[in-house]
Amino acid sequence: MALRIDVMVLTLFCRLFLRHTQTETQELSNQELVQVLETPLKLNAKPGEKIYIITDTSMEQEVWQALADAALNLSMEPTVAIMQPRAFHAQDPVPAVVAGALDPSNDLVVYLTSTALAHAPITELLIEHRRRFVLMEELTASMLAKDGPAGADYLALNILGKKIADIFTNGKLVTVTCPNGTNLTASIEGRVGRAITGIPVVMRPGGGSGCAFPDGETHVCPVEGTGEGTVVLDLTAHSVGALREHITVTVKNGMAVAIEGGEQAAAWREIFAKHGDPESFNCPAEIAIGLNPKVSPTGSMRTDKKMYATSHIGLGDTTALGGTCKAKLRLEGVIREPCISVDGVVITRGGKILLD
Predict the structure, then answer these.
(1) What is the pLDDT of residues 191-212, one digit of tens each?
(2) What is the pTM of this model?
(3) Which domains does the chain have, with CATH numbers?
(4) Suppose 186 and one of 79, 83, 222, 277 were both cysteines; which one would form an S-S bond, judging by CB atoms 3.0 to 4.6 Å apart?
């Protein structure tokens, strides 16, 4: 008889339990994964703290096992909550998982899920309750090679990211152009730029702190209603992966009024029609610059949007970034070689960050 498990919470007390059924070959692979996954835990927690890992049945088991094992190696206590995958990005986990994340006995919450939860309601609750969290959605074992994005110099990324963040924070107008047809402007007056580089960042005054891993971006949340122009996504996009054809988004008065292209653009339109609401068309919900020089495109937003000198543009919810748009959906796509400027100061052009 098949057994369906919607939520299974496993408290892991020792390495022996996690490795019980693994072969010697898997053991070596596990050790490599554990070593890399110790990095985000060292940056965000300390020995003796409790780590609450949210995952789902579409994630590779060896990844959440290795993360739990990394916590044990660092004298932390991991708990793994496993649920069925969410139907779309920004959909909240099931209530039992949310309750576990908010339990005050847990010190750090890690999103290790097949869909992005960064803009799900759970994140707003964690910020409100002054909790710490790390975004590791869509992570695969192949992304954790030492010569890949997980092996970047995160302290150096943070230095570069803060330089860009200061420009965003002090700026008024951001412009994104590209030879692919992108030509977008938006106000960022009064909005804070943030470097997200694996190191905890307070998401808003008096609120919780978060980051991501693998990581490397600086972003700003433009003022809602101010976006004007055209965004042409040409590298990767949420829910459709590596782009075979460009997705062109027309923006008027801060709202996406048309999403055009081939089959992948049609898939985006279907997602908006099925799960969206009027606020989900808010655009740009985010303008970000990738910082990580060790990213090579894979078709996954988890890492592609962190690729050095790229830009990812968001549509939909902005509450997690300090904005005012509360929407059901959050989708993002990547532009490979944008030219981004703030008040006439050029930050990126032709695949290079000009502040290096």
Answers:
(1) 999 999 988 888 888 899 999 9
(2) 0.80
(3) 7-144 (3.40.50.2300), 162-353 (no CATH)
(4) 222
